[in-house]
């Protein structure tokens, strides 16, 4: 296996109008690595993730996905790149007018050009993997938040992404539903998926993350193994943040 | 009492003028079909231009919808039918009516579509685009089905307005339902054909306005 990073963020800057929200972010994510991102609200975590598939357009810098710079290329290339980068949102965003199965097959059919049979088979595999095969014909509104989020994960997985981005995937969930989503993410990690996770689930990070990144004010303040960041943070800002969220 | 029945609900006269009324109804139906179908398609295109990030699409479409919603449809109709010939443009009554009401109506449909599209959350766009769907695919598979469902009562109400609007075509002597009813009235010296026309409009539109109310209540719930 080659050891080129799966995802590389190079000198990324993002401006909204006058405000410089991301200032020179550099991050390499290895194949199969789970990088866990923490930081106060407004520090730019979502913006950074969203730059990785150009849902937000970077102002400066490059995003290299598996050796290919996604900042160059046509809009067709951009669409093809996007389906290689799975994204899971805090608010799930399932398509409410389609069954669970159709949610998972839509992009397979339209963006990947898979046949109906192929897409359905793949969707059922993925739904099975997130434990929801029996809900294939349900509508999203009939599912709990945790189930909806797992369908959203299956929807991304069905496209065989190289990387999965998670933006606070459990923040909108009732506490008792968080576990089922984290379990699916843990399973993904164990199967070798490369993952970038913004979350407040520190326990999950301790058990599953290869690396923890602390962001504040649009920069990466500190990064290291979970035990380093959680056990012996070097920067004052990291310590202050961690003591705040632990309380 | 007898004379009111004779003047307004004269079944013999109604029966005698029925063929004329039906041919008027047929003309009304053709007019509605043209204006509604073209309006639904044209309105959608205008709405898409309206929400486009490209100014050269957006600005003309906003001007279009503003002008044709502000202009009274009757003014527009008479201008097209009686004004344009001064510029050497002769136009049949049917074409004049269809064009005038299409301009008016597609502007209204466009506003309804636009509200519908904006009612669909940004998250739906982002979820779809992040799975590699193009803008057009996202619109047609994800956004528009939800948008249309959200504004179905308004689309229907607007359609009711179109049907009512077509009765204005009588002023350019297009033989639609109201024009023929009025002609029947003058031939028979009896108001029953007008009552019959009113009843026909009611029978057709009442169920639709009921449906609109039902939808509105369901969407509000
Ligand atoms: N579309 C936008 N337009 C303007 N400012 C934005 C936009 N999105 C985010 N921001 C600003 O960027 C900063 C970082 O936001 P975000 O990346 O969402 O932070 P986090 O996810 O860490 O809470 C915030 O100050 C936010 O107000
Ligand atoms: Mg965020």
From TrEMBL, chain A:
Family per record: Belongs to the ABC transporter superfamily.
Alphabetic keyword roster: Amino-acid transport, ATP-binding, Cell membrane, Membrane, Nucleotide-binding, Transport
Residues in ABC transporter domain copies: 7-242
One annotated GO molecular function: ABC-type amino acid transporter activity
Pfam families in the record: ABC_tran (PF00005)
Protein name per UniProt: Arginine ABC transporter ATP-binding protein
Cellular component GO terms, alphabetical: plasma membrane
Higher taxonomy: Bacteria, Pseudomonadati, Pseudomonadota, Alphaproteobacteria, Hyphomicrobiales
PROSITE patterns in the record: ABC_TRANSPORTER_1, ABC_TRANSPORTER_2
Cellular localisation: Cell membrane
InterPro entries (UniProt xref): AAA+_ATPase, ABC_ATPase_HisP-typ, ABC_transporter-like_ATP-bd, ABC_transporter-like_CS, MetN_ABC_transporter-like, P-loop_NTPase
Membrane-related topology note: Peripheral membrane protein
TrEMBL record, chain B:
Membrane topology (UniProt): Multi-pass membrane protein
Alphabetic keyword roster: Amino-acid transport, Cell membrane, Membrane, Transmembrane, Transmembrane helix, Transport
BP term (GO), one: amino acid transport
Keyword set includes Membrane: yes
Annotated transmembrane regions: 24-49, 70-103, 187-209
NCBIfam families for the chain: HEQRo_perm_3TM
Name recorded for this polypeptide: Polar amino acid ABC transporter permease
């Amino acid at each position: 296996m080659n050891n080129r990073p799966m995802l590389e963020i190079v000198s990324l800057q993002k401006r909204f109008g006058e405000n410089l929200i991301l200032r020179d972010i550099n991050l390499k994510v290895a194949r199969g690595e789970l990088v866990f991102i923490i930081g106060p609200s407004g520090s730019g975590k979502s913006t950074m993730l969203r730059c990785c598939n150009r849902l937000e357009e970077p102002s400066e810098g490059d995003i290299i996905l598996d050796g290919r710079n996604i900042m160059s290329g046509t809009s067709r290339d951009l669409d093809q790149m996007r389906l290689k980068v799975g994204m899971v949102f805090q608010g799930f965003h399932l398509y409410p007018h389609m069954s669970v199965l159709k949610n998972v097959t839509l992009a397979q059919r339209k963006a990947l050009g898979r046949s109906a049979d192929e897409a359905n088979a793949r969707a059922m595999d993925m739904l099975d993997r997130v434990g929801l095969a029996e809900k294939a014909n349900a509508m999203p509104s009939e599912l709990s938040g945790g189930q909806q989020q797992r369908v959203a994960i299956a929807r991304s997985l069905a496209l065989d992404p190289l990387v999965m981005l998670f933006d606070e995937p459990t923040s909108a969930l009732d506490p008792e539903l968080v576990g089922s989503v984290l379990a699916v993410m843990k399973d993904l990690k164990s199967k070798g998926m490369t993952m970038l996770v913004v979350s407040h689930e520190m326990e999950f990070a301790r058990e599953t993350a290869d690396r923890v990144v602390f962001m504040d004010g649009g920069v990466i303040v500190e990064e290291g193994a979970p035990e380093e960041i959680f056990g012996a943070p070097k920067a004052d800002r990291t310590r202050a943040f961690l003591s705040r969220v632990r309380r | 009492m007898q004379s009111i029945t004779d003047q307004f609900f004269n079944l013999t006269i109604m029966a005698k003028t029925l063929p004329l009324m039906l041919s008027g109804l047929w003309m009304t139906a053709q007019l509605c079909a043209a204006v509604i179908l073209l309006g639904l398609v044209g309105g959608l295109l205008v709405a898409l231009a309206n929400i486009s990030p490209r100014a050269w699409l957006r600005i003309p479409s906003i001007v279009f919808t503003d002008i044709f919603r502000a202009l009274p449809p009757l003014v527009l109709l008479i201008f097209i039918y009686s004004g344009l010939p001064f510029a050497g443009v002769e136009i049949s009554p049917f074409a004049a009516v269809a064009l005038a009401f299409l301009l008016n109506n597609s502007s209204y449909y466009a506003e309804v579509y636009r509200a519908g599209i904006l009612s669909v959350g940004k998250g739906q766009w982002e979820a779809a685009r992040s799975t590699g769907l193009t803008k057009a695919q996202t619109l047609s598979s994800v956004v528009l089905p939800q948008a249309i469902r959200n504004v179905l009562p308004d689309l229907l109400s607007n359609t009711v307005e179109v049907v009512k609007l077509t009765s204005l075509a009588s002023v350019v002597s297009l033989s639609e339902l109201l024009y023929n009813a009025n002609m029947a009235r003058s031939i028979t010296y009896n108001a029953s054909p007008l009552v019959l026309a009113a009843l026909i409009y009611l029978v057709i539109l009442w169920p639709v306005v009921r449906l609109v109310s039902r939808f509105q209540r369901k969407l509000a719930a």
